[in-house]
Amino acid sequence: MPEPIVREHPQRAIRRLERQVEKMKEEALARPLERIDSEAVAAINQMRDVLACLASEVIALRIENEGMRRVAAMPAAGQPVSDDKPDLCHGIGEIAKHLGLSARQAQHLNDKGELPTFKLGRNVCALRSKLDGWLQQSAGRAG
To answer: Does residue 81 surpass a pLDDT of 90?
Structure first.
């Protein structure tokens, strides 16, 4: 995926650019009409284009984020669909609860790379089916 044009949060960039556009509009309206130059008009139009691009980037990020949530919540192929709980454990606390461990124990195992987890953004997640398989495998090694 290509790097975004700006490094700041897209919504923050949109608000900043909207303020700049409004300031430019106010400055343009404060001048007499005959003094408005083509550079100011071009700058305002350029700001509108940038705002439109950033707005579409925000929409694309929201769609991508929602798609990742839906994919993570889908059961694995061949797995029965459970109506009571989704397959995704979201966060170390929920992973620990599913495994019957304390959050600290789960965090330690995760830091050592022993748990089958992945990250969605900043959040540690795991599929319940993978955790169950890891638990059975761990029990097999211990017994």
So the answer is: no
DSSP state of 89: E
- Rg of the chain on CA atoms, in Å: 25
Percent of the chain at pLDDT exceeding 90: 22
Tracing tokens 């995704």 back to the chain, one arrives at 88
pTM metric for this prediction? 0.41
Gap between the Cα atoms of 48 and 43, Å rounded = 9
For residue 126, give the 3-state DSSP assignment: strand
Q: Which residue would you say has higher pLDDT here, 17 or 32?
A: 17
Contact by Cβ (8 Å): 105, 141: no
10: exposed, middle or buried (Cβ count in 10 Å: 0-12, 13-18, 19+): buried
